[in-house]
Task: structure prediction
Amino acid sequence: MSEGTSGKPAIKTRTMEIAVAAFVLLCGALVIYDSARLGAKWGEDGPQAGYFPFYIGLILCGASVVNLFGALAAARRDNSEFVELGKLKLVFSVLIPTAVYAGLIGPLGLYVASSVFIAFFMRWLGKYAWWLVAAVSIGNSVFFFIIFEVWFKIPLPKGPLESALGLG
Amino acid sequence: MEEFQSLMQGFVIALSLKNVVLMFAGVILGVIIGVLPGLGGANGVAILLPLTFSMAQSPGGTTSAIILLSSIYWGALFGGAITSILFNIPGEPWSVATTFDGYPLAQNGRAGAALTAAFTSSFVGALVAVIMITFLSPVVAKFALEFGPPEFFAVYLLTFCAFVGMSKESPFKTIASMMLGFAMAAVGTDPVTGALRLTFGHMELLNGFDFLVAVIGLFGIGEILLTLEEGLEFRGTKAKLNLRVVLDTWKELPRYWLTSLRSAAVGCFMGIVPGGATPASFMSYGVARRFSKDGEKFGTGMVEGVVAPETAAHAAGTSALLPMLTLGVPGSPTAAVLLGGLLIWGLQPGPLLFVEQKDFVWGLIASMYLGNIAGLIVVLTCVPLFAAILRIPFAIVAPVIMVICAIGAFTVHNAIFDVWMMIVFGIMGYVFKKLNYPLAPLVLAIVLGDRAEASFRQAMLVSQGDMSIFFSTPLVGVLTGLAMFLLLWPVVGALRTRLKGR
Result:
């Protein structure tokens, strides 16, 4: 295990195990609930819509209960960390821009949003010179524009820039 | 010799100029995908699948499309070895065992020998598996033509129970992950009654979760987040591969014929039984270490230690297509994506494929021979180029891969909602991987969920809800029994170790 810049554990593995097992248990309960609503029994003309998923939900709940107890039974002093603070920050510094990127695709179009995303990533995390940032981020979008719109004729979402250029 | 004739016909199809070009393009793309972090066989094929939608509509187009996609798969299998040997980073999970001896070899200045050995034994492993597919798959398909719904459900059951029995992760985590996949597959409109299931009033969920989006998120975004933790830079050894080194290594390789043969056998077996390439590579490395006379030197840079896992991984990866083609049950996540492709193109995978789509099947099988030859040529000649890709800093590669994944997710249904889903699946993949919830059964369950449910329902209709139909004939009884045995295998194993401990 390599030591990061800050060795503080942000989340313990045990906590995360419990959280995930509980989440899966909740999913299982939802599946059972909805299958029961639709009818998980034998209808007039055969199995009802919830017949198969009902059992899936049951097994899902069963397995996650075992996982949950397994995690709860794990020694409390087990301090192994799920992720340390420094690394968690790094992960979020990628996740948040990616979520913003997904949000920008609608209003800006995929090509412009991609350029902004790559430029931001390279400048902020990579600290590259502006000319390289511009070359890669714009070049990437031009490349994909040619592949998708021109070559494969698959339209991707376009925004105000493309319509201004008469490409949309 | 009917197979031989069909195969020759297949070669005629596969050798058309268009298909050969697609083959090389696929292999090169595949190697790049295999080398890049965050892109692998499964999500690489998933991202490119939408590009084949229009291709598959022209006559003979499905064959070209499958040749392109399967070649990407071969390329990715080859590519994994490059990063393992030069950078000590396994590009694919099945190349982890290759790092044990491959990286020390590279550090000792024998990177060329290690790479040549890896590529050549990959090729040998794939060749053995393709020969097996050529002669075994028509037999299996003919046999499976007799299958009814209970038999098919028993085969699905066997597949999923095998995951529980063979997985090295906790069986309950495997089951949880698998059932989550089945639950996701059930979301949306019920194909029989038309009732809306598990949508809770959200229109976006009407068509359920798409497995392509799930694969791109789980394997692509999840992998990038994991790689991020390792830091932003890769350091590796220089790759030099000239004809001298290749020929010298080739002279050395025949010495390990027994290891190759054993590893190929392990690989073929593990590929058909859904264990997959990753356990096959570890198992074959372990077997080789036990039987080799230099066994204790393994791990310090033995060529034999590269030959064993690579042969097995490729043999397993290739033979995973046998159950996919003949039964419609994929043996690996990538095979599952290919199966999804077949369904989208309007082909029904399963025994009937060998009767109704002869050109498609044999064109594909012939292309497996040719694709692996193409792969060997490409990797042997272009290694430095591919290694250079990995030297591009992660801060440039990562956002570009994210964009590629987003485009891939979008093009599945032309929906921005899928891009959001991809991010959610990415977080899920990251967390699951860190907590050792296996992802392969999850993906397989999403792909096979509807089909498994359909065969279960049909079987239940036949028997009027009586579960004993799954033991009603010797054939289905053996399949179900075998499935139960594999499901309980972890219990048997645990009991055995406890008894031994006393």
The mean pLDDT of chain B is 85. The first strand of chain B starts at residue 188 and ends at 189.
